[in-house]
Amino acid sequence: MAPQTSFNNLKVLEPLVPGSSEKGQITQEVVKHGGLGILTAAIFLAGEMAGSGVLALPAAMIGTGGWLGLALIFLFTANAGFSGTRLGLCWIMLEERYEEFRGEVRDPYPAIGEKAVGRWGRIVSMIAISLTLYGGGCVFIVLIAQLLGSLVASVGFSLSLCLWMVIVAVCLMPLTWMGTPKDFWPIAVGALATTCIACLLVVVTCILDGNQIQEKVFPAPTADGIFKAFGSIMFAYAGASTFPTIQADMADRSKFNYSAMIAMGVLFAIYFPMAAGCYFSLGDQVTDNIV
Known about the structure:
disordered N terminus
């Protein structure tokens, strides 16, 4: 009789079974050589989520009176961190129960949906992911096109926004041909570093400009303003669809929870000063795009 493989000795993770003495534990970890480490995965998560949404955070504070908006940032940070850890546990459960998910997997999020509720779960997940990434991609293309247009216009060369959008899309297209996150991890480091530097410069500029304002106005919170802030802050934390993809590229996937918590801490360290510093420096003079 042939000996069983090491994967057959894995214990099934059963977080919902009361009295399980091995809850949340894995007797043998599935390690993929050459994958992402905990810190690299955290950088990927933070760099992927910290994007154009941060530019709207100061303006989102106007209708909340400031402090309520900051409380919403804290709430969404905790919510995103909790959701990330739950997704991580879902993927670990799939790896333990289904052998086909222990290797390279290109669509982990739809796979979770399919194993949870059936075929329609995969379809709904794919539609939601596609719409989310399409909407986010369009925002980034427009934003990059506007910035490039304004920079080039300063040297006397001018093109329409539509042409710049086509140029940006063509330049970004080769990046989509890469395989998985581990194939282009330096981009994640660069994305997070540039976001942090840009936010720091924006906050410093707002503080300096705010010192020139004689009288600052801080509007009282309104129901309409709170709902708008809710949407803007939620958009800033969009990106959970890529969580399982990054986890699937980790060398030790069981440690994804650590990466998710580190990433949420980094995001909070970026978002909170950005919203508070700019809003309390400029008051109601902050714009929808703080840049």
